[in-house]
């Protein structure tokens, strides 16, 4: 589809909330419709584009600044960009929204206790024990969105329900054909 409208779908939430778990089938669903889709994921980006950064507030903001630049380029070239990043700070997310323009914020809401139960790497246990500094939601703040376009409650919804909610929004707002 050559007249595809570009948009960035920004999934934000705590580690383990389900951002990537939603992003992967969302991307596949959109690709099956013949749409151009790129997925930018926190773990993947930190192995390449931002491997030089740590987890201080300044480094987290620089990480999101770089991702925003890439998402902006892709979006303006008619690609649906799915970003899955903790992106804990409201001000930085607002700046990303402003820079990208076509921007849909999806709050992947999940209680920290549920995120900790899902944590296969044991990072939450280490953070609760004080062994990891600057861990979002434990020893570093997470500022939940106050006015996101979509909220996925992943402790209560299935992955399919969350994906369907996002696709329905995209259809209703003319980003993808119904």
In brief:
This protein is α/β, with parallel strands linked by helices and 178 residues long. The protein has helices spanning 19-32, 42-45, 57-76, 90-100, 112-118, 123-128, 159-172; strands spanning 7-12, 37-41, 80-84, 103-109, 150-153. The chain is built from seven helices and five strands, in the order βαβααβαβααβα.
Structure report:
The protein has 178 residues and is of the alpha/beta class. It has one domain: P-loop containing nucleotide triphosphate hydrolases (Rossmann fold, 3-Layer(aba) Sandwich). The protein is 43% helix and 15% strand. It contains seven helices and five strands. It has helices at 19-32, 42-45, 57-76, 90-100, 112-118, 123-128, 159-172, and strands spanning 7-12, 37-41, 80-84, 103-109, 150-153. Strands 2-3-1-4-5 form a five-stranded parallel sheet, sandwiched between helices. Helix 1 crosses helix 7. The longest helix is centred in the middle third of the chain and has 20 residues, at 57-76. The protein is globular, with a radius of gyration of 16 Å. The model has no long low-confidence stretch (mean pLDDT 92).
């Amino acid at each position: 589809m050559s007249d595809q409208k570009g948009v960035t779908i920004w999934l934000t939430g705590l580690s383990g909330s389900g951002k990537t778990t939603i992003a992967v089938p969302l991307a596949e669903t959109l690709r099956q419709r013949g749409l151009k889709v790129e997925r930018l994921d926190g773990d993947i980006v930190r192995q390449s584009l931002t491997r030089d950064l740590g987890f201080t507030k300044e480094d987290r903001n620089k990480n999101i600044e770089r991702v925003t630049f890439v998402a902006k380029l892709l979006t303006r070239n008619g690609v649906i960009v799915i970003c899955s990043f903790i992106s804990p700070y409201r001000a930085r997310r607002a700046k990303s929204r402003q820079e990208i323009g076509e921007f849909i914020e999806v709050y992947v809401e999940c209680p920290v206790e549920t995120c900790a139960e899902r944590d296969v790497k044991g990072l939450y246990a280490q953070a609760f024990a004080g062994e990891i500094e600057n861990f979002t939601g434990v020893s570093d703040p997470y500022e939940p969105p106050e006015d996101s376009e979509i909220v996925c409650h992943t402790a209560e919804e299935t992955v399919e329900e969350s994906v369907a909610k996002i696709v329905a929004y995209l259809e209703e707002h003319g980003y993808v054909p119904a």
